[in-house]
Amino acid sequence: MDHVEAKQKYLILTDPEFFECFARETKGRLANGLALLHCPLPEEICREITAIRLKSRGELGFVEST
């Protein structure tokens, strides 16, 4: 995003856990003028994403622990 000419630049993340981890790991390391935003998705879409992730992880051979 360093090469984009814009007055405002945003990196928008929708997953709350990934947002917290990414924000923590990149604190002070993002390009100047780049804002990190968390934009939660509607609950219905979150449920669909969870189902897709579980299915794809199963197809890749990952075992989910309960």
Write a concise synopsis of the structure shown:
With 66 residues, the chain is of the alpha+beta class.
Given helix and strand content, the structural type is alpha+beta
Helix content: 40-55%
Overall outline: elongated
Rg, alpha carbons: 16 Å
Summarize model confidence as the mean pLDDT. Answer: 91
- Order of helical and strand elements: EHEH
Count of DSSP-assigned helices: 2
State the end-to-end CA separation: 39 Å
| Poorly predicted tracts of residues | none
Estimated share of beta-strand residues: 15-25%
Can you list the strand order of the major beta sheet?
1-2
Reported for the largest beta sheet, the result is: 2 strands, parallel
Q: What's the β-strand tally?
A: 2
How is this structure best described in words?
With 66 residues, the chain is of the alpha+beta class. The protein has helices at 16-26, 43-59, and strands at 9-13, 34-38. The chain has a two-stranded parallel ribbon.
Task: Furnish the topology, listing elements before pairings.
Blueprint: E1 9-13, H1 16-26, E2 34-38, H2 43-59
What labels would you give this structure?
single chain; 66 residues; alpha+beta; two-stranded parallel sheet; elongated
